[in-house]
């Protein structure tokens, strides 16, 4: 019997091979869409398109995990991110600060051959400490050798630091760091000052804008000579005690070596 007659005898044309025949059992059931299967198309698509995420049931334990998609606001410096909420000045503080004392330099700024910044005080301290130990001074960050000949000043960082805003300790207003010192010493109306009659014993000190009112009412210029002599004698005694304490401390520090020889004998 011919092939056509066999097909007619079998009750119609033979059905084409189903694509689910080559799939595993769960995928074939999903494609076939049999009764009781929900979401078969999505499940089959996940099996055909790639492995399931790592950690899910049925995932291949040897397959590498999928990369996580970066969500909005995660690891970005946008206005809603953590970095966007910090001011530019505050972010520059951590960039331009000294790598040793972690403070903004007030004068010269030196850098090692790899670009790490050091303020003048810390730079000199590192060189002096290494010289006392008879060692080679190194950068605290990268451990490269540092010296006056190897390191150089970073003028760009010095200018950038001088333009950063800083807050006055008296009036709480912000000024560029290059102008802050002059403002606090000469211009700030809230800076702490002393009476011009301090030399004759006036203990007053207060904000500058109250100085003229105090000096107009100060009673020390009207004191008699005997009263002023008593005040000056007290000031001399206080100064004498301070000088004695200073000399005793200086004499202790001038000893080349302070050692401990042993316990004294008991009586």
TrEMBL record:
| Residue ranges constituting the RING-type domain according to the UniProt record | 98-143
Q: Which family does it belong to?
A: Belongs to the ZFTRAF1 family.
User: Please, which domain of life does this record's source organism belong to?
Assistant: Eukaryota
- Can you give the residue ranges of the TRAF-type domain? 144-202
Localization of this protein: Cytoplasm, Perinuclear region
One MF term from GO for this chain? zinc ion binding
- Chain residue ranges for the region called Disordered: 1-82
Q: Which organism is it from?
A: Calonectris borealis
Tell me the subunit arrangement. Interacts with LGALS3.
Can you name this protein? Zinc finger TRAF-type-containing protein 1
The record's listing under Gene3D superfamilies reads: Zinc/RING finger domain, C3HC4 (zinc finger)
What segments bear the compositional bias annotation Low complexity?
14-32, 41-51, 71-82
Per UniProt, the TRAF-type Zn-finger stretches lie at 144-202
A matching Pfam family: Sina_RING
Gene, per the UniProt record = Cyhr1b
């Amino acid at each position: 019997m011919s092939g056509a007659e066999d097909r007619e005898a079998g009750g119609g044309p033979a059905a084409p091979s189903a694509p689910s025949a080559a799939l595993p059992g769960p995928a074939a059931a999903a494609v076939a869409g049999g009764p009781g299967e929900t979401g078969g198309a999505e499940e089959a698509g996940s099996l055909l398109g790639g492995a399931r995420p790592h950690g899910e049931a049925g995932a291949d334990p040897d397959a590498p995990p999928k990369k996580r998609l970066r969500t909005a606001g995660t690891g970005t410096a946008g206005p809603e991110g953590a970095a966007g909420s910090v001011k530019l000045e505050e972010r520059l503080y951590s960039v331009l600060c000294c790598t040793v004392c972690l403070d903004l330099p007030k004068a010269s700024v030196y850098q090692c051959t790899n670009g790490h910044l050091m303020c003048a005080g810390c730079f000199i301290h590192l060189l002096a400490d290494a010289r006392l130990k008879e060692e080679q001074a190194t950068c605290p960050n990268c451990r490269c050798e540092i010296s006056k000949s190897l390191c150089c000043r970073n003028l760009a960082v010095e200018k950038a630091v001088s333009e950063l805003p800083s807050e006055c300790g008296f009036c709480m207003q912000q000024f560029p760091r290059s102008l802050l010192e002059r403002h606090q010493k000469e211009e700030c109306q809230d800076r702490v000052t002393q009476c011009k009659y301090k030399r004759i014993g006036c203990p007053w000190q207060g904000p500058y804008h109250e100085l003229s009112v105090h000096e107009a009412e100060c009673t020390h210029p009207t004191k008699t000579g005997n009263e002023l002599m008593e005040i000056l004698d007290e000031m001399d005694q206080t100064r004498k005690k301070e000088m004695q304490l200073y000399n005793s401390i200086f004499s202790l520090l001038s000893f080349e070596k302070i050692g401990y020889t042993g316990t004294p004998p008991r009586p």
